[in-house]
Design goal:
The longest helix has 22 residues, at about 65-85. α3 (about 65-85) packs across α4 and α4 (about 100-110) packs across α5. The model is unreliable at about 1-10 (pLDDT under 50). Helix content is about 45%, strand content about 15%. A hairpin with a 2-residue loop joins β4 and β5. The protein is α+β, with helices and mostly antiparallel strands and about 200 residues long. The strands form 3 sheets. A 3-stranded antiparallel sheet has the order 1-5-4. Strands 2-3 form a two-stranded antiparallel sheet. Keywords: Plasmid. InterPro entries: ABATE (IPR010852), ABATE_dom_sf (IPR023286), Znf_CGNR (IPR021005).
Length: about 200
């Protein structure tokens, strides 16, 4: 049994970080979870960043079926996010084509692993930590992200979800202040350059 924690140190919720493993580079879709070795790297980095899981050891093998389940959840989250935001982008669209299928994947993912919260103590301080058993750490992580997706979708943050419409971006982001238009400053710069070039091309 391995301990986990649900604390976050990222500007985006964990389900959105999973959704954002699809990106665009030079007009082509790139998948950061394209094979089990890439899944291994993402799980290790994410687990370390969010204090969810220790990074997998170099000898630990991620089964292809584990990787497929995590990717399926990613694709379901992207479909649900696209439907919520009426995403007009064509590149990087989810292979999950409808909300009903995405919902089924989400519900199945939430039931994958045996994961539950426990109250623990560090000296006089109490804290919540998730623990898991009876399954792989990838399935446990998939379960946690699926449950966090449900929490996100039923929270005010879901209404602030946006697709980043900068040229060549496939990311989503939660609009955390009124003036934010892009997922990152680099996308804002690209959008301004593209607008400038378009204005000059029509002069």
């Amino acid at each position: 049994m391995s301990p986990t924690s649900t604390s976050s140190h990222s500007s985006e919720p964990l389900p959105i970080l999973l959704a954002n493993t699809v990106s665009i580079a030079r007009g082509r879709v790139e998948d950061a979870l394209a094979d089990p070795s890439k899944v291994n790297g993402w799980v290790g980095t994410t687990g370390e960043q969010f204090a969810l899981f220790p990074p997998p050891s170099s000898t630990e093998h991620i089964d292809e079926s584990d990787a497929v389940r995590l990717v399926s959840l990613r694709d379901a989250v992207r479909r649900l996010a696209a439907e919520k935001t009426r995403d007009p982008r064509t590149l990087g669209q989810s292979p999950v084509t409808d909300v009903a299928t995405a919902t089924s994947i989400l519900n199945a993912s939430a039931a994958l692993g045996s994961v539950w919260p426990e109250l623990q103590w560090h000296g006089p301080e109490a804290f919540r930590r998730d623990v898991w058993a009876d399954g792989t750490y990838v399935d446990a992580l998939t379960t946690i992200i699926a449950r966090q997706t449900m929490e996100l979708m039923t929270s005010p943050q879901w209404d602030r979800l946006r697709p980043c419409l900068a040229p060549g971006c496939a990311y989503f982001f939660v609009k955390d202040h009124l003036r934010r238009q892009w997922c990152a400053a680099a996308c804002g710069n690209r959008a301004r350059v593209a607008r400038h070039a378009q204005r000059h091309s029509t002069d």
